[in-house]
Amino acid sequence: MSTTPLKVAVTGAAGQIGYSLLFRLASGSLAGDRPIELRLLEIEPALKALEGVVMELDDCAFPGLAGVEIGSDPEKIFDGVNLALLVGARPRGPGMERGDLLEANGAIFTAQGKALNAVAADDVRVGVTGNPANTNALIALKNAPDIPAERFSALTRLDHNRAISQLAAKTGAPVTDITKMTIWGNHSATQYPDLFHAEVAGRNAAEVVGDQEWVESTFIPTVAKRGAAIIEARGSSSAASAASATVDAARDWLFGSAEGDWVSMAVVSDGSYGVPEGLVSSFPVTTAGGDWSIVQGLEIDDFSRGRIDASTAELAEERDAVTQLGLI
Ligand code: NAD
Ligand code: LMR
Questions:
Q1: Is the ipTM of this complex over 0.90?
Q2: Where are the strands (E) in 99-171, listed by range?
Q3: Can you list the residues of the chain whose pLDDT is less than 70?
Q4: For the CA of 156, the nearest ligand
Q5: Which of 87, 160, 231 to mutate to test the pocket of ligand 1 (most atoms within 8 A of CB)?
Q6: What range does the domain containing 41 cover?
Q7: Which segments constitute the Lactate/malate dehydrogenase C-terminal domain (predicted)?
Q8: Is 187 a catalytic residue?
Q9: CA distance 154 to 176
């Protein structure tokens, strides 16, 4: 195990997700015993609040926390980072779709893409949580031409975890028995959580459930609209679960996914499964050594085809919108 601290940038560090995420990172949920150095980016008006969060990090006396730096200049904060978790962006409120945030948030990711391009470490990985996450990741990667596009991903792990939890509750199986879950497409209401390739204790999940009506009318909408349900109940969007999924995704990306299973990540499409090349779309992936590869050879029936196509059509529309806004 390396004893060189892993340099991890978190943007929007004084926000809701930040308040959970920083403590998970510092306590070892990401890198285990490897020390971690936190680089925290915020806008100027939020720096005072961030100072308070840093006092709390200090007060935890985390053995693995090798240092914390805060600031509002992305070129200073991203200098030499191995991992950048781009969380900072406005969340949606009740009645909004995540795509409504494109105009408000898109510009954040042009500036941060450029800064990462200029100063991040050669091995940087960039995970985008801020919404609309897939298209923000596309904006960031297009503004960072010297960083390979494969080093960017957007978070659909929260949807993946939500799908596992719903399936476990339906079947009575422990979450550890649920494998090969896939979220396809956009982190939006059009996403497609796929039970036809998932397994419950090694058996096909759709067959175990045996209820197509439940899959279409309960499972898929519950997972796809979970973010809105949380906003409705809490008055603000998911935070601790989003932080937890951000850690899960980064840990698996950097240190590898479980043998015999796969995870969902939104990554730049190479055209696999008919997803137009260049869109940042969620796929089943395995990860090893800091790289991901799309699981190949899954059979896609007409039902799944229609769902995947609908979500990727939305991603193409988002790409057109940010092109028109001059962000890519
Ligand atoms: P929040 O409003 O509590 O915090 C966002 C923080 O970002 C604020 O502190 C703000 O000052 C900061 N910020 C804004 N512009 C910035 C910039 N240019 N540089 C650095 N920091 C900046 O929001 P939150 O609840 O923490 O959510 C953050 C984002 O994550 C939202 O867009 C939300 O929709 C998204 N989200 C995504 C998922 C997912 O699964 N992909 C899940 C939950 C939330
Ligand atoms: C979520 O899925 O909880 C987040 O993307 C927040 C939202 O706007 O739904």
A1: yes
A2: 125-128, 152-154
A3: 1
A4: 1
A5: 87
A6: 6-154
A7: 156-322
A8: yes
A9: 24
